[in-house]
Amino acid sequence: APRILSGMQPTSDSLHLGNYLGALVNWVKLQDEFDAYYFVADLHALTVPTDPAVLRDRTRKTAAQFIAGGVDPERSALFCQSHVTEHAELGWVMNCLTGFGEASRMTQFKDKTAKGQNANVGLFTYPMLMAADILMYDAAYVPVGEDQRQHLEITRDLAERFNTRFGEGGLVVPEPYIVKGSAKIQDLQDPTSKMSKTGSSPKGLIDLMQDPAKIAKNIRSAVTDTEAEVRYDVENKPGVSNLLVIHSVLSGTRIEELERAFAGRGYGDLKKEVADVVVDALTPFQKRMAELLDDPAELDRILASGADRARVVAQATMARVRDLVGLVPAA
Ligand code: ATP
Ligand code: MG
């Protein structure tokens, strides 16, 4: 089967609904069709200054959430990025292929620094490490959300550049894998921005691990607009549209159908129903999480065996890359 690869950063104790609907549910579906590699991007998370104990805890929690969401570590390689040290090495090679101006045009860096996130050089070179993550596994496809499209573009450019400079067949140029009907979820308090682990305020998030009463409360206080009509219109009604998307994806009801069902009813009704739909979806997930976190040794074993699988591919790629770029073999 063709190989796919995707990852998430352990930048929070909990993934949010955007991570879940925009990525995790797709990962689960794709593992039937593809040779899937899923990883916790702990090296990427170092771009956000974090207490070491907290980072360690979040890394395990993130891996557990992949499993609770349905990633099957028997079928898919589930691992920590830092366990496969080749990622950092290939990341360096990618840095050396990237123009400074090219890196400066990456919008994630601009968005995050504009929001006041402490900018270190690691955040600046994030797309090059991400390119390394992907190219390491000869991934044919990369399932990513809309917010990562630009990073996938630079990954493709870098792979092509590498092949032009060092020889065809060096690196596989990956295609984005946009899952049909895949949702982008917006911040509840700032519905023109995407929901983000590091960018959203606590009230802007629907965290997968949060207690149901808090989830309902956040949804009840979601920003809407001054009209009273439940209608999908991203331009003029981003808040209401976001709630409709959340409902639609989780309940499997088409948006037009929801508009009809909520005709003549207020935003309060919509919010209440969205909260119910979200809480119903998350109840089994939270139950599974509690079991997984109860057995951290088992979780570490799963991650170790996933890293063993990933390392086999990564070492082969790095041997090829080292040779092609002209590094002298160690022995
Ligand atoms: P951070 O703020 O630390 O960047 P994040 O919320 O953007 O966190 P990532 O770990 O960067 O999450 O991304 C993990 C996956 O979730 C990626 O595939 C990304 O496309 C997807 N994703 C992130 N936010 C959303 C969102 N709001 N809607 C849909 N998908 C999303
Ligand atoms: Mg992100």
From TrEMBL:
<keyword id="KW-0030">Aminoacyl-tRNA synthetase</keyword>
<dbReference type="InterPro" id="IPR002305">
    <property type="entry name" value="aa-tRNA-synth_Ic"/>
</dbReference>
<keyword id="KW-0067">ATP-binding</keyword>
<feature type="binding site">
    <location>
        <position position="133"/>
    </location>
    <ligand>
        <name>L-tryptophan</name>
    </ligand>
</feature>
<dbReference type="InterPro" id="IPR001412">
    <property type="entry name" value="aa-tRNA-synth_I_CS"/>
</dbReference>
<feature type="binding site">
    <location>
        <begin position="145"/>
        <end position="147"/>
    </location>
    <ligand>
        <name>ATP</name>
    </ligand>
</feature>
<keyword id="KW-0963">Cytoplasm</keyword>
<dbReference type="GO" id="GO:0006436">
    <property type="term" value="P:tryptophanyl-tRNA aminoacylation"/>
</dbReference>
<keyword id="KW-0648">Protein biosynthesis</keyword>
<keyword id="KW-0436">Ligase</keyword>
<comment type="function">
    <text>Catalyzes the attachment of tryptophan to tRNA(Trp).</text>
</comment>
<dbReference type="GO" id="GO:0004830">
    <property type="term" value="F:tryptophan-tRNA ligase activity"/>
</dbReference>
<feature type="binding site">
    <location>
        <begin position="9"/>
        <end position="11"/>
    </location>
    <ligand>
        <name>ATP</name>
    </ligand>
</feature>
<dbReference type="GO" id="GO:0005829">
    <property type="term" value="C:cytosol"/>
</dbReference>
<dbReference type="GO" id="GO:0005524">
    <property type="term" value="F:ATP binding"/>
</dbReference>
<dbReference type="Pfam" id="PF00579">
    <property type="entry name" value="tRNA-synt_1b"/>
</dbReference>
<keyword id="KW-0547">Nucleotide-binding</keyword>
<dbReference type="InterPro" id="IPR002306">
    <property type="entry name" value="Trp-tRNA-ligase"/>
</dbReference>
<dbReference type="InterPro" id="IPR014729">
    <property type="entry name" value="Rossmann-like_a/b/a_fold"/>
</dbReference>
<comment type="similarity">
    <text>Belongs to the class-I aminoacyl-tRNA synthetase family.</text>
</comment>
<dbReference type="InterPro" id="IPR050203">
    <property type="entry name" value="Trp-tRNA_synthetase"/>
</dbReference>
<dbReference type="InterPro" id="IPR024109">
    <property type="entry name" value="Trp-tRNA-ligase_bac-type"/>
</dbReference>
<protein>
    <recommendedName>
        <fullName>Tryptophan--tRNA ligase</fullName>
        <ecNumber>6.1.1.2</ecNumber>
    </recommendedName>
</protein>
<feature type="binding site">
    <location>
        <position position="185"/>
    </location>
    <ligand>
        <name>ATP</name>
    </ligand>
</feature>
<comment type="subunit">
    <text>Homodimer.</text>
</comment>
<feature type="binding site">
    <location>
        <begin position="18"/>
        <end position="19"/>
    </location>
    <ligand>
        <name>ATP</name>
    </ligand>
</feature>
